[in-house]
Structure formats: structure tokens, C-alpha cells
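Quick start: what a row looks like.
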Amino acid sequence: MTNQEIFEGIARRDNRTFLYLYKEYQAQIQRMVEKNSGNAEDALDIFQEGIIALWTNIQQGKFQLRDNAKISSYLFALCKNLWISKLRKRKDFKSLEESNELSDEEDTEMLLAEHEKISELEKHFRQLGEACRKLLSLFYYQKAPLKSIAAQMQITEKTAKNNKYRCMQSLRSLYQQNAAKS
């Protein structure tokens, strides 16, 4: 499904769209929660809360589909923030001080700003060459080790490391050029 189809499906409460979201993204959210002091039950709760928050934000106009915006990135950010809030309540998230806690409104504003940055970064990511996109996707999204990436791309591990650095520099440059224009 395209982002537009997902957005419209959520807005009209289409069950097929919600099933699609579960099939595509629930496992990612579960991994994130389980890596951060949670279990499968916690992950399912957080995912369901994230879906509800996404639907609510679409209904209230807090989230609108903009150029190159990815609903998956927004949903992941929502779930991440929901999980952090739950950990705070459990007192498992000891690194945050009480004085640094944000109100729900500030959390939402921060989340929307983060979503815009992610969308902008994704736009620049698509401007990279195919080899850079593949390498960075394998390394950062699929968490593949450089040795595995090198084998897949038929290059040496050292070349993969150097190319990853160059690709990141290119991405940073594209992002900074756009920031300077704004």
C-alpha cells in the first residue's frame, strides 16, 4: 500500500488498512520494545496504542501526509514515545530525570518535529545513488554487519566501511544544503 492509501484507509477506518499495518510493522515495534526492557505483551499494547494515536492524530488534523512523509516512520516514533512514557511510569527508565519530563502537548510537538526531520532525511536518502541506499539500508535498518554487507555487494569489508562513511557524508551534505536554504 502507498502512504496515501494507508492515510486514507486509516481516516475512513478501513479494516484492511489496519490489518496491513499489523502485518507490516508490528514485528518491528515488538523488536524495539523487547530490546528496551519489554516483552511481547508490552509490544502488542504499545503497537495498539500507537495505531490509536495515529488514527486520532489523523482525525484531529495533527498529522497530515506531506511530500515524502512515511506513515511507518511516524507510527514508529509514536510507539517509541509511548514506550518511553510507559517505562517512565514503571520507573524502569531511570536515566530521565523528573524535571525533564514533557507534557503531552510538548511530546506531540516534539514528535511532529521529529517526523518532519525524518521525512526530510528520507527525501535526501532517495537522492543518493542506488549503491549508497542499499549499503546504508543494510547497515542501519537491517543491522547487517559490514562483513555480510561486503559479501552481498561483492566488495571487501574495508571497501564497505569506506563506502558507508562516504555515503553518510553525502547524505549529511544533502541535508545540510537543504537546511541552509531554509
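That is the whole record. Residues 1-94+102-127 form one domain. Residues 157-181 form the longest helix (25 residues).
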